[in-house]
Amino acid sequence: MAExxxxxxxxxxxNYTLTGVGGFMAAGMLAPMVRFAIDPVLQASGSSxxxxxxxxxxxxxxxxxxxxxxEQVDAWYTSEVTKSAWVYLDENDEVVALSPVCKHLGCTINxxxxxxxxxxxxxxxxxxxxxxxxxxxxxxxxxxxLDVYQKEVRDGKLYLGNAVAREEA
Amino acid sequence: xxxxxxxxxxxxxxxxxxxxxxxDHEVPEHxxxxxxxxxxxxxxGGLTFFVTVIQILSGMFxxxxxxxxxxxxxxxxxxxxxxxxxxxxxxxxxxxGASVVIVMLFLHTLRVFFQGAYKKPRELNWMVGVLxxxxxxxxxLTGYLLPxxxxxxxxxxxxxxxxxxxPLIGEMTKTLLGGDPTIVGAQxxxxxxxxxxxFLPAALFVLMGIHFIMIRKQGISGPL
Lengths: 169, 224
Ligand code: HEM
Ligand code: FES
Ligand code: FES
Hints:
Number of strands of chain A: 9
Protein name (chain B): Menaquinol:cytochrome c reductase cytochrome b subunit
Largest interface: A-B, 12 and 20 residues
Distance between the termini of chain B: 47 Å
Oligomer: heterodimer
GO molecular function, one term (chain B): electron transfer activity
Cofactor (chain B): heme b; heme c
Shape of chain B: globular
Bound molecules: protoporphyrin IX containing FE, FE2/S2 (inorganic) cluster
Membrane topology (chain B): Multi-pass membrane protein
Largest sheet of chain A: 3 strands, antiparallel
CATH topology of the largest domain in chain A: Rieske Iron-sulfur Protein
InterPro entries (chain B): Cyt_b/b6_N, Cytb/b6-like_sf, Di-haem_cyt_TM
């Protein structure tokens, strides 16, 4: 009789089949839509070309802002967008090219943007500050140093690519 | 686990009678295709609902990429169909579903008509059904403009001119629908979009709600 107890009742069988078939249909319906919706997360990000930004002769020891434009493809909308960098030559005459995007919450920083801190980068949003080399001043909101641009010097011109985060100090 | 979650909620708000009321009821023998195969005609209402659910879901997902703007509508549709994973499938579901839903609705109406199921006391539900039919046609019409290609554009020109031919209120109706007395353009597209994704679906939900509540109250009509 123990055997009989194990048997699946007609009602259970129907319940299982209906749940199975229903689940299969729902999954078949939803799978393409979910994949469609999450596509932006799975798209490989494209690398950008190096662009000529400044003549080497323009650079000094003082950070200067240089702007240039790139063609940005945003899904069905292609446009020219302006990028900027703060560029100067360090003690060894090496080019330093810093991203102007604050590492706190993304506002735009300025060199000597605050009268009280003429030798620092300053972010107006929440008063974030960075030393000349881009390292964040402790006890101001940002908790990382400014990103640095990929750079290349060719024929007396400075070429910049993407801004990349520095290695953890 | 699931059972525990269910019990926890049921303990507090007593949901069992609620869902029993919605889902747990007898299917009369004469509408069960397992007893009489010809009873498959009773499925068309449910199939209409099923395809409508597909339309609503696929439509919601399409609006993640679609923009109702004359410069970008066509390009966004082209992008979602060619560049986004499964875009062709999701747009295809909405595109073909729009036709299938009308076919199902029509077959459902035929069944109700030839079985005389619209007779007293179900006249009201027949009227609600007719309204659902109109809302569905309007959804097909307004959706057809959205891809903003040549077919969409000229179909809309013709539609608006038909509206314009109505005596007395024609010109006004045409401007109201198209957003401009002469131009079929920016304002036409935004209006059709708003009507297609907000106003008509809202009307459809209300009507379907009434339709289903009445069915539960009155039951399915008896055998022939
Ligand atoms: C029963 C309901 C519906 C019907 C019959 C219907 C019908 C249509 C039709 C015929 C098209 C043109 C498709 C093409 O030519 O490829 C369309 C496009 C569209 N519909 Fe719907 N629709 C319904 C519900 C909805 C809902 C609820 C939404 C959004 C919440 C929606 C959003 C869209 C969008 C964004 C488009 C433009 C994308 C495209 O053309 O592929 N639809 N619809
Ligand atoms: S965004 Fe720069 S300090 Fe907050
Ligand atoms: S629009 Fe030309 S014949 Fe109807």
